[in-house]
Write a structure and sequence with these properties.
The complex is a heterodimer. Chain A is built from 18 helices and ten strands. Chain A is an alpha/beta fold. Classes of the chains: A alpha/beta, B mainly alpha.
């Protein structure tokens, strides 16, 4: 018996080797077209030789160059980009406006996962790239350090113009926190709005303050961002000027909620059902801001909690200049608060951090707050800082 | 009589090695469902949903979940086979050229220290022009990550399996005037089979883990690992837990399959 096993073994092992080989060949066959060996050298070689050929091959049929005509309509650009499967977005809750736009023009709602740089747009693997007016759009057009210097060789589709705008940066806390600490909430809003007003009056100065507090980007980009964020804070989705900072406009909020109900897909049926039942009253409370605005001196009685933390949606940058200005100019201190600003961008999202009590306030997009409340959190928005959507789809034009 | 008693004892031992962990698992599940576990850990049913809810989410979404499991499995198994083959090839090369072979393998094992989180985005960029289909090219990028993690274990074990022969067996073969090729196929390769399984015991769990992590950074949004992340960021903890459950199941089932295969192929060898 043992002898037979020994005789068999070479055959068995040879069979095993052949098996592994066969599986790997078929495995590679389905993914690889150029080389059967999936060694890391192959893609590098392909990168240098295949790149020019590919950019020619991706030329849209209905235009005179590899990209889009300057006069092309939003519909034709979106239809072409979606047809090629080259619409990019970061995902993670940033994709609903893009899905709404694709649906508006009768396209499937698939999109490519876009990295946090614009390299994919630069090398044409993404034809229509998501960009925030105050951040990525500046990197694409401007030529300062880190910029791609496209200048006027790009155009963009604005979500506000397309009627699919969803509101973004707000200030929120848990309903329980707001109920237990009304004076703290009012004082925090009063000081924050004072900071935003100041920042919008002097965006250059605000950019410098943010840069001082630790910045993820260069000072030139910081000033660009401050100027663009000012527009989002002082203009609504229709292009009208807004003077009451942090105002929660019912129409824009309702549009955000309606789009959220349509495009946020939750696999948890309990959460999905709850999403459909949400109303504006489940996601925002206007009473605190109303009282904060009424006050002329920022005195609301002793704050129930004087040491408070706010977690931002992203790294320190002029997107959040109002809070840094309020902190730097002592507006929080004047209101009797000792505020710590915590940068975001990690995988502990601001909704989770606020819900678990790690921080008291958070800055998030309204759609993220809606999804979190559907999932079982009880968060409430107390101020809507950005009055219009800052999301655009940027594309190159033939020039 | 004595032998029978001994066999009885080993049977009981075999039974208890399976029974105790299973009982412990059931014990934890009961604590979990009755929320005693939540009190011990100081957490709530939002962050740690009940098993019943998690299982019902898996049941409601089995089609979507299967699609993601499929994507993860292709990456994990594709990377595992490619990495293991490449590793075995390296083992053969170092056996054929023993002078620099062992030293070369030390360099290869240095790759083991490369954190895959660091190379995943780089591989995404390198594979950009591989295919026009984002799913295909990001699948390749993920597979390369898995392949790198699987290569090292196999190459070192294959080298040992091909060189650490039974005493005098090489002398015996040489006394029969066996050619190098005959020695390779009749002595070295069979000798390396148990070592292949030693390597696989390391790389099978590793391939699942690296497939899940590489999905985080992939260009195309698919896979069990990616769904865990997307759902946690969107504060959908119950759904995230459903995918965590599935990820655990993939790892455990693949390891069980490996153990079964090893039991069949190496019967009488150990």
């Amino acid at each position: 018996m043992k002898k037979m096993m020994k005789k068999m073994l070479p055959k068995v092992s040879a069979f095993l080797l052949v098996c592994i080989l066969a599986v790997s060949m078929t495995g590679c066959g389905s993914t690889s077209t150029s080389t059967p060996d999936a060694s890391s050298a192959a893609p590098v070689a392909a990168a240098s030789s295949a790149a020019p050929a590919e950019s020619v091959a991706t030329a849209p049929a209905a235009s005179s160059g590899p990209y889009y005509d300057e006069s092309a309509t939003a519909e034709s650009v979106v239809t072409d980009g979606a047809g090629k499967g080259k619409v990019g977005n970061w995902g993670l809750g940033n994709e609903y406006e893009i899905k709404a736009l694709l649906t508006k023009y009768g396209q499937p709602t698939d999109y490519l996962s876009q990295a946090f740089d614009m390299d994919g747009f630069d090398d044409d693997s993404i034809l229509l790239a998501s960009a925030m007016t105050y951040n990525e759009l500046g990197l694409v057009t401007n030529s300062y350090k880190g910029g791609y210097s496209y200048g006027d060789k790009v155009k963009y589709i604005d979500m506000n113009d397309e009627g699919v705008a969803m509101l973004e940066d707000n200030i929120f806390c848990t309903s329980a926190f707001a109920k237990a600490n009304p004076n703290t909430v009012k004082a925090f809003l009063y000081a924050s709005m004072k900071g935003w007003k100041d920042a919008c009056a002097n965006p250059e100065e605000a950019a410098k303050i943010v840069f001082k507090y630790g910045s993820s980007v260069s000072s030139e980009h910081q000033s660009y961002m401050a100027a663009e964020v000012k527009k989002l804070v002082e203009t609504d989705t229709k292009g009208t000027t807004v003077t009451d900072y942090g105002n929660m406009d019912d129409t824009a909020m309702q549009q955000t909620l309606d789009l959220a109900k349509k495009y946020i897909k939750l696999e948890d049926s309990t959460a999905a059902d709850k999403l459909q039942t949400l109303t504006l009253d489940n996601i925002r409370d206007t009473s605190y801001l109303a009282e904060a605005i009424k006050s002329t001196d920022g005195k609301f009685g002793t704050p129930e909690k004087a040491d408070v933390k706010i977690q931002l949606k992203w790294l320190p940058q002029a997107q959040f200049m109002g809070y840094y200005v309020a902190l730097d100019k002592g507006y929080y201190k004047d209101a009797g608060l000792n505020v710590t600003i915590t940068p975001g961008g990690g995988d502990i999202s601001e909704t989770t951090a606020v819900n678990s009590g790690q921080v008291d306030f958070g800055v998030t997009w309204v759609s993220n707050l809606i999804a979190a409340n559907a999932g079982g959190m009880d968060l409430t928005e107390v101020s809507q800082v950005f009055q219009r959507s800052g999301l655009v789809l940027v594309y190159k034009i033939n020039k | 009589m004595e032998i029978e008693k001994l066999q009885d004892r080993t049977n009981v031992e075999k039974l208890t090695t399976v029974l105790y962990p299973v009982l412990f698992g059931i014990f934890i599940a009961v604590l979990w469902q009755t929320q005693i576990l939540h009190k011990i850990l100081g957490t709530d049913t939002f962050t740690l949903p009940l098993p019943g809810r998690i299982i019902s989410i898996i049941g409601d979404n089995h089609a979507t979940i299967l699609k993601n499991v499929g994507a993860t499995l292709i990456v994990a198994l594709g990377g595992l086979t490619a990495g293991s083959l490449f590793g075995y090839l390296l083992g053969i090369i170092s056996t054929a050229f023993p002078k620099w072979g062992a030293g070369g393998l030390t360099v290869v094992s240095a790759f083991n220290a490369v954190p895959i989180i660091a190379i995943a985005p780089i591989l995404n960029n390198l594979t950009k022009d591989f295919s026009k289909d984002a799913n295909t090219r990001s699948m390749l990028a993920k597979m390369l990550v898995v392949m790198i993690t699987c290569t090292v274990a196999m190459s070192i074990n294959a080298y040992r399996g091909l060189t650490e022969l039974k005493p005098f067996s090489l002398d015996l073969m040489q006394s029969f005037a066996a050619s190098k090729l005959e020695i390779f196929f009749k002595l070295r390769v069979p000798n390396s089979v148990p070592y292949i399984f030693t390597a696989l015991r390391v790389s099978v769990p590793a391939c699942v883990i690296s497939a899940l992590v590489s999905e985080y950074f992939a260009e195309y949004i698919i896979g069990v690992g990616r769904q865990i992340r997307e759902n946690i960021v969107l504060a959908q903890y119950a759904t995230a837990w459903a995918y965590i459950f599935v990820a655990c199941a993939i790892g455990i089932i693949m390891y069980l399959i490996l153990l079964t295969l090893e039991g069949i192929l190496l019967k009488g060898r150990r």
